[in-house]
Amino acid sequence: MRNYLVTGGAGFIGSHIAEALQQLGAKVVAFDDLSSGHATNVEPFRSVELIKGTILDAAAIEKAMAGCRYVFHQAARASVPLSVEKPAAFYETNVTGTFNVLQAARANKVQRVMFAASSSAYGESEVLPKVETMPQQPLSPYAASKVANEGMMRAWANCYGFDTVSLRYFNIFGPRQTADSAYAAVIAAFAKAMLQGKPPTINGDGEHSRDFTFVHNAVHANLLAARSTQPLHGEVFNVATARRITLNHLAQVMREQLGRPDLKPIHGQERAGDIKHSLAGLSRIRGTLSYEPIVDFETGLSATLEWYRSVLPSGNGGKG
């Protein structure tokens, strides 16, 4: 019954972490400004208290964190293309907001902070797989903000006597990931289009590849980090499946699973700040946290598309 706080707790990944914690019998505070999260994501969970607030409000986050021993910091602005358009907003939320979270953790004598870092830190290095010892080469304001946060995680752990860990997520997908935004993640965007009977749009030639990782794997990594008996002083770990999927293959599998082989992708221009290939090495997280992926790509995709069928409107022959 230890208290846990999840920033961004009504959002996509945060709500899955909150759900897993309450299933384990924990008392959870979900702190969210509901700018992209939804109260309905956590309302079914009786032991999850939703507090509406922003991590830009230092007093509010400190108050919400009172009595919590563990913090899962998921709150952030999270779109690469939108960060190119609005770099100041991304810096304010992701960097200043994380500063406020760490200061609140310090004031409340929190034991450990788990931070949602990003594989975008690796940039366009041609070396695969990506391993944590590679230099950071952010290509977008979003990526730069996440790299800055990793530095703060390590510094606060070094100076202020509590543990931190940065979990570099690789293209997390799953139920509750929004498909409503023009900047929606690719699986969400493809699902929305196909269920409306429209062909998906691929930015570039479709040979871009990603280490698509079902959300339960990210939750698993967070829980392993929280329960680890080892000191964690800002260590960085990849969270992924160590498998590379091209966007062309993704579109093909989704067309098959949705029964819409006729919806051949449309190809557009590549997006600024996008990397070509992404594949994680998992040796460090396996060795330190005993992490292994618990849900594979196909299984996770099937569950995700089933959820989109239940929440997205269909049209023009789409099966929703």
> Remind me, CATH topology of the largest domain?
Rossmann fold
Annotation field: number of helices: 10
Number of domains: 2
Strand content: 15-25%
Q: How would the global form be characterised? A: globular
The total of beta strands comes to: 13
CATH C-level name of the largest domain: Alpha Beta
Global Rg: 19 Å
Major beta sheet summary: 7 strands, parallel
Structural class: alpha/beta
Low-confidence stretches: 316-320
What is the CATH architecture annotation of the largest domain? 3-Layer(aba) Sandwich
Listing every helix as H and every strand as E from the N terminus to the C terminus, the arrangement reads EHEEHEHHEHEEHEEEHEEHEHH
Provide an overview of this structure:
There is one protein chain. It is built from ten helices and 13 strands. It is of the alpha/beta class. The protein folds into two domains: 196 residues, 3-Layer(aba) Sandwich (Rossmann fold); 94 residues, UDP-galactose 4-epimerase, domain 1, CATH 3.90.25.10. The strands form four sheets. A seven-stranded parallel sheet has the order 3-2-1-4-5-6-11, with helices on both faces. Strands 7-10 form a two-stranded parallel ribbon. A two-stranded parallel sheet has the order 8-13. α1 links the parallel β1 and β2. The longest helix is centred in the N-terminal third of the chain and has 21 residues.
